[in-house]
Write a structure and sequence with these properties.
The chain is mainly alpha-helical. It has four helices and two strands. Strand 1 and strand 2 form a beta hairpin. The protein is globular, with a radius of gyration of 15 Å. The chain starts with 6 loop residues before the first helix and ends with a strand. This is TIGR03643 family protein.
Amino acid sequence: MIKELSLLDIDRIIEMAWEDRTPFEAIEFQFGLKEQAVISLMRNEMKPSSFKMWRSRVHGRKTKHALLRTTKNARFKCSRQKAISGNKISKR
């Protein structure tokens, strides 16, 4: 079910899954893992108590599910992140 991932990829997926504003769709876009696969990865990689705490946090959270969000952005980025165009950071 879970494809071969490097330790860096697994660390990044866990980090993204813990972030409140990173939807599961962003993880799927970047790593090809659907929500169920992310949940399985988190269950396997975390202590049971940490997994339970994470699962209760993200269950039904609007910011973790793009379909539940009130604003639909095509890109997954923080509003405070600088715009990047042509591999150059644009100036304000």
